[in-house]
Design brief:
The complex is a heterodimer of chains A (about 110) and B (about 120). Chain A is an all-beta fold and about 110 residues long. Chain A is about 0% helix and about 50% strand. Chain B starts with a strand and ends with a strand.
């Protein structure tokens, strides 16, 4: 399966600042996604990163807060904007090669906002 | 709407004993079912999937899962647990319809294997 490199692996940020998380896949994938995992909880889908077009956001997530780019089939970024302590979470990049295929994940970015 | 339920927040077993982590699902259409494991400070790792075919699916690290359509369950099993199996386990279902890109994850079950 593909390998996803995600960075940074962790960061501590100040309230009101923004952080951009990068996700690089070692081979082409059809779909890329961004998930959030709050402490002790399950995964929540933030958005589907679409190549060359605007991401598709899930209910409760908006582009102004979580802008996403996907310039090609192997790279995507997620920005967490104007951060508050409530944004403290693990952010996970994932990819899939097709309809019947599994999701594979990066190792995650653990974000703490002070 | 698609959903999965993991009724146990935590499962405790002794090393060498069999383990079961439970998962039930609710889907409209054919289920696409997955199990993932998450170790501390790591992303999720794929264990196994059921798309179609044999109800007993074998996966990584000696894990297997049994698809039971009548009970809408997809329990994860291993005949002999290892201490190194201690981790957080997630069951997931993929939308089999038009929103096939969406995965729905359960709440997770923490597995503790004691020596």
């Amino acid at each position: 399966s593909a390998v996803i490199s995600q960075k940074p692996s962790r960061d501590i940020c100040q309230r009101g600042t923004s952080l951009t998380i990068q996700c690089q896949v070692d081979s082409q994938v059809t779909m890329m996604f961004w998930y959030r995992q709050q402490p002790g909880q399950s995964l929540t889908l933030i958005a589907t990163a679409n190549q060359g077009s605007e991401a598709t956001y899930e209910s409760g997530f908006v582009i102004d807060k979580f802008p996403i780019s996907r310039p090609n089939l192997t790279f995507s970024t997620l920005t967490v904007s104007n951060m508050s302590p409530e944004d403290s979470s693990i952010y996970l990049c994932s990819g899939s090669r097709g309809r019947n295929e599994k999701l594979f994940f990066g190792s995650g970015t653990q974000l703490s906002v002070l | 709407a698609q959903s999965v339920a993991q009724p146990e927040d935590q499962v405790n077993v002794a090393e060498g004993n069999p383990l079961t982590v439970k998962c039930t699902y609710s889907v409209s259409g054919n289920p696409y079912l997955f199990w993932y494991v998450q170790y501390p400070n790591r992303g999720l790792q794929f264990l196994l999937k059921y798309i179609t075919g044999d109800n007993l699916v074998k996966g990584s690290y000696g894990f297997e899962a049994e698809f039971n359509k009548s009970q809408t369950s997809f329990h994860l099993k291993k005949p002999s647990a290892l201490v190194s199996d201690s981790a957080l386990y997630f069951c997931a279902v993929r939308d089999g319809g038009n929103n096939f890109n969406k995965f729905y994850f359960g709440s997770g079950t923490k597995l503790n294997v004691k020596p």
